[in-house]
Amino acid sequence: MRAGRSPLVVANWKMNKTAREAAAFAEEFLSLRPSLPDAVGVAIAPAFPVLERLGRLLTHTQVLLAAQDVHTESKGAFTGEVSAPMLRDLGVSLALVGHSERRRDRKEDEASFARKIERLLENGIAPLYCVGETLEERDGGRTDEVLARQMTALDAFGSLPAGLVVAYEPVWAIGTGRAASSAMAADTHRQIRSLLSKRYGSDLAASVRILYGGSVTPANAVSLFGEEEIDGGLVGGASLVPADFAALVKAAG
Ligand code: PEP
User: Fold this and answer.
1) Which CATH number applies to 8-252: 3.90.1140.10, 3.40.50.300, 3.40.718.10, 3.20.20.70?
2) Ligand 1 centre distance from Cα of residue 158 (Å)
3) Helices 242-252 and 19-32: crossing angle, nearest 10°?
4) Is the pLDDT of residue 2 over 90?
5) pTM of the entire structure?
6) Contact 179/214 with Cβ under 8 angstroms?
């Protein structure tokens, strides 16, 4: 990562870990924390029902509580959904928007991501906006076009959304064991930063952290996080094991 942007490693637990399992993780991870670099920000996004218990365990630890999603509206008749004010009350400070599994399974689009980001900002929660192309799109030479379309979710904002973090997650690398090469990821991060520059100018764009996600492991993290353009990671599988997640935090330092 580049000087001036602090590294960040975010665990996306997806639909894994009960509250009890999360507590066991927290105990073990927090025991390793003193040996990890202070300069690396760490956040954990458990499933919604686990937020409260994990949040209590993370109080005063500097490990941030994150959410995996948020609804487009603040309240109302939306059975099964969770709003930004509810997340704020639980102490959530960062929330994923646009994860590829939601794009795929829920057919969500950029207009709804923009509304989600608005709700988060209204509640003082930083958005972690996820973008990335499928294998078919990369092989078809359409990565630029896909990223440009996905980044239009930010068009609703005249100024840089407070605390915005972007995650580049090539869909073909998520959960497949096939991470992007450091060079390919860094190159795509540069493209994303140039899309941010067009909206907010190069100085503000240079301040935005862009994380890489997709089969990050302790074995490839040093090389990925060593790239100037890669400011840390959004991590699924390898974030479920305390020692592995700790190794990723170390690699980001
Ligand atoms: C993710 O889903 O955000 C992710 C990066 O998963 P994994 O690390 O398992 O590829």
Assistant:
1) 3.20.20.70
2) 31
3) 50
4) no
5) 0.97
6) yes
